[in-house]
Design goal:
By secondary structure, this protein is mainly α. The chain contains two helices and no strands.
């Protein structure tokens, strides 16, 4: 039977060491990076929704052209 591999647990990492060394300065940087991440995610979500809506409209139009009857909730009334 194979020996169990040893696992080394690393707590914190470089970000935690920097935060300990810098004190309050690191917390301000993390707040700024959090806002940046939120802005990027919001942009991504907005873009994804726009592309999804565009895909649905195009796909509905394509199915309508081929002759498929679309349900009333998602018809090609766009």
């Amino acid at each position: 039977m194979a020996e169990a591999k040893r696992v080394r647990i690393i707590k914190g990492g470089r970000a935690a060491r920097v935060a300990e060394a810098a004190g309050g300065e690191a917390s301000a940087k993390t707040a700024e990076s959090g806002r940046e991440v939120r802005a990027v995610v919001s942009d991504w979500v907005r873009d994804h929704r726009r592309r999804s809506d565009e895909f649905r409209r195009n796909y509905s139009a394509l199915l309508g052209e081929v002759g498929f009857k679309l349900p009333g909730c998602c018809g090609s009334a766009a």
